[in-house]
Design the sequence.
């Protein structure tokens, strides 16, 4: 399983970013995909997850209504659209994949998102 994130950067509060995760090495359409983040001194937390067929999406309460996860099974990519960004969204963002509920997540290397004026 290989996951490569891109799209992070520096953005002002209230701005937007779109993260992308390119994948290979597994049957993409059969896997649950997700985005997680980890801020300095804090534990890694689940931000958003999407089911293998894309019909079910779950979000952390802190990002509901601002972030949207999507997947393109033909391109084997998963995305995270982040709008109305806040300073507290600053973190390293990781793409992850797993075969099913209760199985182990495979991780990408992460992409840094910094929200600052």
Sequence:
């Amino acid at each position: 399983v290989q996951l490569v994130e891109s799209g992070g950067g520096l953005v002002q509060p209230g701005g937007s970013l779109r993260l992308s995760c390119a994948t290979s090495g597994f049957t993409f359409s059969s896997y649950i995909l997700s985005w997680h983040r980890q801020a300095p001194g804090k534990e890694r937390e689940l931000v958003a997850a999407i089911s293998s067929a894309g019909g079910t999406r779950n979000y952390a309460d802190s990002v509901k209504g601002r972030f949207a996860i999507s997947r393109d099974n033909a391109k084997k990519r998963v995305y995270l659209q982040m709008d109305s960004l806040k300073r507290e969204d600053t973190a390293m963002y990781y793409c992850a994949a797993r075969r099913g509920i209760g199985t182990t997540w495979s991780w990408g290397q992460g992409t840094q998102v910094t929200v600052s004026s």
Q: What stands out?
A: The chain has a mean pLDDT of 97.
